[in-house]
């Protein structure tokens, strides 16, 4: 499974900020760590700001700070801001989907979509940060 | 998504094997959580898990056989705050001995107070003593709340996939 670039940027930024909610980081600092474009990340951070997950801190030493709830925000909450991980469940159709073979293929793909959705929906930022810490 | 919800303070509790007198409270907690009251089911589970004469009231060392089934409750005095049920099973699906968690429930009003963590850790400890070094459970995909709980305990997808079909 592959996530879109904006989604990965958002997840990296949120994990970085939520790991230490009192700390503020600039888009530059986050972008440098993960090797991503600062411009792209800045757009993503604005999207996260609009839903209240991060807040911009102005002034010297300003940057971004996590403003959500680590124990309530799931990976799915963040992913869905940028892409749909279960397009077939959401009614997206492709050529051939109306054939018997296409329907059977959709059935199999939906099984995969449902599993992916359940996985992302059950992992909170808090759990993700623990997972990161265990890997250190 | 971002609205903060304060975490409840850790609730102190004592974990022990369930007694017959606890079962009405277990039934009530389950009914509160699921919307269904299943008295017969819980009484039957209690009989199968804790009500064997050989090791009744024995939560440490068995009198005759090693205990491998556990119906535990977390209590504050006589009040049951939550329950957990599990069993060590071996060689089903080709799996070496493994602890299975079959049910867990905590009173709604004290959720996020650490009682679920305490119950699961108490069960895990008993699983370890019974010779298991892995704990496993199975959940409905759309039971996000309970799945999040097990995820928060470090549990990840295992090597098995559940399959089914209509008969």
Report on the architecture of this protein.
The complex is a heterodimer of chains A (136) and B (167). With 136 residues, chain A is mostly helical. Chain A has a single domain (5-134), classed as Arc Repressor Mutant, subunit A (Orthogonal Bundle), CATH 1.10.10.10. In chain A, 54% of the residues lie in helices and 6% in strands. Chain A has a two-stranded antiparallel sheet with strand order 1-2. In chain A, α1 packs across α2 (27-34). The longest helix of chain A is centred in the last third of the chain and has 23 residues, at 100-122. Chain A is elongated and about 60 Å long. The two termini of chain A are 24 Å apart. The model of chain A has no long low-confidence stretch (mean pLDDT 94). Chain B is α+β, with helices and mostly antiparallel strands. Chain B has a single domain, classed as Aminopeptidase, CATH 3.40.630. Chain B has four helices and five strands; from the N terminus they run βααβββαβα. Chain B has helices at 23-34, 39-49, 115-129, 144-152, and strands at residues 14-17, 69-76, 79-89, 98-106, 135-137. In chain B, α1 (23-34) packs across α2 (39-49). The longest helix of chain B is centred in the C-terminal third of the chain and has 15 residues, at 115-129. Chain B starts with 13 loop residues before the first strand and ends in a 15-residue tail after the last helix. In chain B, 28% of the residues are buried. The mean pLDDT of chain B is 87. The interface between A and B is medium-sized, with 25 and 17 residues.
């Amino acid at each position: 499974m592959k996530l879109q670039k904006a989604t990965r940027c958002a997840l990296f930024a949120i994990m970085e900020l939520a790991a230490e909610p009192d700390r503020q980081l600039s888009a530059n600092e986050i972008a440098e760590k993960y090797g991503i474009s600062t411009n792209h990340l800045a757009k993503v951070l604005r999207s996260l700001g609009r839903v209240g997950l991060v807040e911009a801190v102005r002034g010297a030493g300003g940057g971004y700070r996590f403003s959500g709830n680590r124990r309530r925000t799931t990976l799915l909450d963040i992913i869905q801001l940028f892409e749909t991980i279960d397009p077939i469940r959401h009614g997206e159709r492709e050529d051939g989907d109306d054939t018997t073979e296409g329907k059977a293929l959709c059935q199999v793909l939906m099984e995969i979509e449902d599993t992916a959705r359940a996985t992302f929906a059950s992992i909170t930022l808090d759990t993700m940060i623990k997972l990161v810490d265990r890997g250190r | 998504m971002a609205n903060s919800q304060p975490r409840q303070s850790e609730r102190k509790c004592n974990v022990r094997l369930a007694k017959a007198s606890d079962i009405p409270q277990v039934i009530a907690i389950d009914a509160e959580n699921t919307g269904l009251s299943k008295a017969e089911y819980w009484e039957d589970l209690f009989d199968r898990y804790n009500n064997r004469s050989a090791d009744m009231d024995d939560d440490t060392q068995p009198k005759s056989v090693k205990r491998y089934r556990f119906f535990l409750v977390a209590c504050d005095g006589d009040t049951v705050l939550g329950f957990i049920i599990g069993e060590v099973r071996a060689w089903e699906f080709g799996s070496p001995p493994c602890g299975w968690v079959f049910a867990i429930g905590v009173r709604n009003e004290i959720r996020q107070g650490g009682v679920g963590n305490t119950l699961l850790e108490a069960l895990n400890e008993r699983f370890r003593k019974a010779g298991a070094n892995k704990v496993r459970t199975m959940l409905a995909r759309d039971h996000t709340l309970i799945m999040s709980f097990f995820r928060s305990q470090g549990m990840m997808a295992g090597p098995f996939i559940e399959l089914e079909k209509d008969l």
